[in-house]
Amino acid sequence: MEATAADLQSLIALRHDLHRHPELSGQEGATAARIVAALAGTGARIVTGLGGTGVAAVFESGQPGPSVMLRAELDALPIVETGSPPWRSTLPGKGHLCGHDGHMAILAGMGLMLARRGPARGRVVLLFQPAEETGAGARAVIQDARFAALACDWAFAIHNLPGVEHGSAWLAPGPANCASLGLVMQFEGKTSHASVPEAGVSPAPVLARLMPALAALGPGGALEPGYRLATVTHARLGERALGIAPGWAELLVTLRTLDDAGLEALLREARTLAEAEARAAGLRFAHHVEDHFAACTNHPEATAHLAAALDSCGIPRSAGTLPLRASEDFGLFGSVSKSAMVFLGAGRDHAMLHNPDYDFPDDLIAPGMAIFAALVERICQA
After folding, report:
1. Do the Cβ atoms of 156 and 171 come closer than 8 Å?
2. What is the predicted pLDDT for the residue at 197?
3. Cross-strand partners of 235
4. Cis peptide before 205 (omega within 30 of 0)
5. DSSP characters for 58-113?
6. Whole-prediction pTM value?
7. Which residues of the chain have pLDDT under 70?
8. Sign of the torsion angle spanned by Cα atoms 266, 269, 275, 278
9. What is the DSSP string of 289-347?
10. How far apart are CA 55 and CA 137, in angstroms?
11. CA distance 209 to 217
12. How far apart are the C-alpha atoms of 99 and 103, rounded to whole Å?
């Protein structure tokens, strides 16, 4: 299973086209259509609308054996691109600034190779997942009634990682990415004239106490068992007016831990603290959770398969500084498959993920395909 020069030329063109037309989480309809078109003629069974806009390409061997899912992401980010490649985003305020365009090109390339040489046994499923950036996509895919028939024994993903030597890889069993969620809290009291603030019920003192108190619940530190980080990301108090003492407030905090159980415990503590403060101040309190990411944990057997694939491709690997603080919406697939993710170096001096001048390195498409091909050879061709 090897990519040809023509393959790589067409995949780079696909990557550039995807980069020009980024779509945000849950809105990836045109992106999905481009992927379906790229997979035309491969002989795969195509499933569309999975978990919203997701696409799955299923390559069956017709023989019993293991099943392997390889996953990429469809969505882009709500960030203004400031870089100037000829293929820069044509949609203001939207950009493929995390490399999902490159990940899709890698996976589409696997479709080309599997069309020439499918699995000898079992099956391979190429999953193009929606809404990775919000943590909603994996859950929506798994909850889709059609996913039960697509679930695999093994699940693998590649994510490019700037700051790491170009073409090298970070891989380790165990925690790979933190669990995280966003807690959105609203406090409602009563406005009053600024000259008589005592006539109202202001949430200002509660906000002032809660921001450091929430941060104290998760002070960060070393990424080891028990790690907790609470980051206040947004606060808004009343209207922008000088004659009104505020009567409402909103506070957003991101909670982060190494595992899902720790995240649930931290959420309970943060919610209890905010509820108590609101009650004591006579404020009405409401809250909800957004951007909920499960912890991403590399299964030891899946990690061993990935390590062997990297070695067979001659790609140097180390544990690097894993786990990462950042979250990744691949973790939930570990609840249905033995899963692992590898981080492929984009270069020590490369613009970082989510930077406005980031662009995926085209020369990572070939090694990404080689890693996935080696996994399929190892698991489904042996």
Report:
1. no
2. 97
3. 251
4. no
5. EEE-SS---EEEEEEE---BS-------TT--SSTT-B--SSHHHHHHHHHHHHHH
6. 0.95
7. 382
8. negative
9. EEEEE--EEE-HHHHHHHHHHHHHTT--EE-TTPSBSS--TTGGGGGTSEEEEEEEEEE
10. 12
11. 13
12. 6
Give Cα 10 to chain centroid, integer Å. Answer: 26
Contact assessment for residue 171 and residue 157, using Cβ atoms and an 8 Å cutoff = no
Residue 297 and residue 217 in contact, taking contact as beta carbons nearer than 8 Å: no
Q: Are 51 and 137 in contact (CB under 8 A)?
A: yes
Q: Which two tokens stand for residue 262?
A: 């720790």
Per the CB < 8 A criterion, the answer to whether 83 and 357 are in contact is yes
Consecutive H or E run containing 162: strand 154-162
Q: Which residue type occupies 54?
A: G
Local structure of residue 24 (DSSP, 8 states): -
Cα–Cα dist 63/348, whole Å:
44
d(CA 52, CA 129): 9
Query: What does the block give as tokens for 323?
Result: 């786990």
Strand partners of residue 129: 73
Which token pair is 62?
A: 């017709």
**Model pLDDT for residues 193-231, shown as the tens digit of each residue:** 999 999 999 999 999 999 999 999 999 999 999 999 999
Give the residue from 202, 203, 180, 219 showing the smallest Cα distance to 274: 203
Residues with Cβ within 8 Å of residue 301, at least 6 apart in sequence: 338
pLDDT the model gives residue 286: 98
Task: Give residue 316's identity as a one-letter amino acid code.
Answer: P
Environment class of 186 (CB within 10 Å of its CB; exposed 0-12, middle 13-18, buried 19+)? middle
